[in-house]
Amino acid sequence: MPHRRNNEEAKKLIDRYLEGRCTAEEKLLVEEWFQQETALKGTATAAETTSFNKATKKRMWEALSHHTATKHRFNYRNLALAASIILVIGIALYFYSTLIVNRNSAIVDQKILPGYNQATLILADGTKVELDSAKRGIQIRDEDISYNDGTKIGAKTIVYRDSSIVNSTLLTLSTPKGGQYQIILEDGTKVWLNAASTLKYPSHFSGNTREVYLEGEAYFEVTNNPSIDAMQANRKSYLANRKSTSPFIVKSQNQLIRVLGTEFNLTAYSDDEAVRTTLVHGAVRVQGGEGSPLTLVEPGAQAVLTGNQLSKHQVDASSMTGWMRGTFQFTNSPLSELLRQFSRWYNVDFVYSGKDLPPVRLNGDIHRNVTADKALEILRFYNLSYHTERQANGQLRVVVTKDPS
Hints:
Blueprint: H1 4-18, H2 24-39, H3 54-70, H4 81-100, E1 107-108, E2 111-112, E3 116-117, E4 120-122, E5 128-130, E6 137-141, E7 144-147, E8 152-156, H5 163-166, E9 170-175, E10 179-184, E11 190-193, E12 197-202, E13 210-222, H6 228-233, E14 248-252, E15 255-259, E16 262-268, E17 275-281, E18 284-288, E19 294-297, E20 301-306, E21 309-314, H7 317-320, E22 327-334, H8 335-346, E23 349-352, E24 361-367, H9 372-375, E25 384-390, E26 396-402
Parallel strand pairs: 3-10, 6-10, 13-14, 23-26
Antiparallel strand pairs: 1-2, 4-5, 4-9, 6-7, 7-8, 9-12, 10-11, 11-13, 12-13, 13-16, 14-15, 15-18, 16-17, 17-20, 18-19, 20-21, 22-24, 25-26
Helix pairs in contact: 1-4, 3-4
């Protein structure tokens, strides 16, 4: 069932179309949907026609047929008032379910859609919970898990007080390609997950450290110690007994980050050549490999782990966290960085056609909520172009090419 926010977005699009206020691209999308709907006329199942009765469907077909044929503005007020309410809500449900949230292929009429809020929660007993895409994130409180707006999920964590048991009973929050999600851990620490990322964490931190594990990319806002408000918000007394000096540790591939209270971005994808830790506020110590010394990282600095070699340099921290604000931010970035980020966010392979990538350096900001063709407009500034092709397995991919000199 489509979610409320998605329905409202679809309703607004239909309203703009019927009132003649939508863009040419939006107009084309609605009319293509209508053509698909009329092609299915008489063959739809009962489930597919939920919220559509024959009268309202017939009225919609007649109205849009006239509009498509004459290209004149359609007057939405011509519909009977009683039928119009059912019509708009029904179309919103059907339109969004058949076009906008049909993400199995991530492609609608050859348009590659951007990612959205989606994630899977795996409980300690192996139970999988597909999280609501209309919500931004979840929060852990005692044994309960709820969405950030307070809506109960219905799943319960398994809480152990023995630290040896806690360490072996981790929960997992995973985003697929084309997904993002947020979690508030039981100590109040906030974590934002980017696409194709996995966070493993205990339902209850126990012992002298608070440890989590990350593969992918995430932004951490780590609490130094639970606040009085956080303690009162939780019903269990164990929060009050935690030491305020309990360090927060993030483990990723061959790296360990040790913090008390800070904000930082960690990029640790398995297919990246390096693990990058970018500090926004506070201070962290980064260890590259077992037994290696801890390296202090200050705000505005980035620790880069390549193999077993850890280096540190100054960066524009805001450019590394642009994804949290809904933008791709490229600052003197190689083409390979764009291909990787687009592949993860649009859930389609982006590749370069030649053997060697051109030595271009990309600069600019791109909104993450646009379709891929809009995002790829940046290429023309670097004498690059692209085309789409369907592979033998039926999947679409985007191929970037160098324009002739």
